[in-house]
Amino acid sequence: MITFDINQLAENGGLTEKEAAHWQEPGLIYRDLEDRLAERGYPVPDKLFLFGFGSSALYGSRWLALQAESGELPQAAALGAPGGWPLVPTVSFQERELGFPLGLADLSAGELDETRKNLSSLPFLLYSGAEDEFCLSNDPRYYQADHRELLAELAVCRPGLAGPVIELYQEYLSLVEIKEYQDVDHRLDLEMYKDLVEFFAGITG
Predict the structure, then answer these.
(1) What is the structure's pLDDT at 22?
(2) What is the CATH number of the domain that holds 123?
(3) pLDDT exceeds cutoff 70 at 6
(4) Pairwise pLDDT comparison (203 vs 185), residue with the higher score
(5) Terminus of the chain with fewer CB atoms < 10 Å: N or C?
(6) Closest by CA position to 62, among listed 134, 9, 117
């Protein structure tokens, strides 16, 4: 099981106590969403999609890993320009152990198998502009000092998606789709919007 100090997370990430609780018990976000929709008179949707861009995509990758242990995942996820190193679905890379929030080394063998199985069944779009230089790997709000040192060694701050990230997502997530957009920096352009609409519209079940 992935564990962490919820107070430290709130302090480092600038999260409220309620927001931090969503990380400790990821299923809370579903119940909060249902409550908010009901309060406004909206029906609870039968499909839930996860979308993030920039730092929200980084947090989205971490949330998916936590949520995957329970199997309560959205119907699809699209994460764009996730700041250099989204959480990857493996325990190590180049003989370096990857614990949370870099990878899944904190899980037992059984938990790892279940998490990978659930993530692998999730339609997933990982995308970025090819000229996007947005990177959070040196930011202490997102990574501890030892994580920042490791990411510096792996040289993940580069335009577009880092090569190891693409490699690991393609290796472990059977339904992942990777897209990079030429001549696009850190922004959502029209072509991205079109592909996002097409991606989510194609999700059935």
Answers:
(1) 57
(2) 3.40.50
(3) no
(4) 185
(5) C
(6) 9
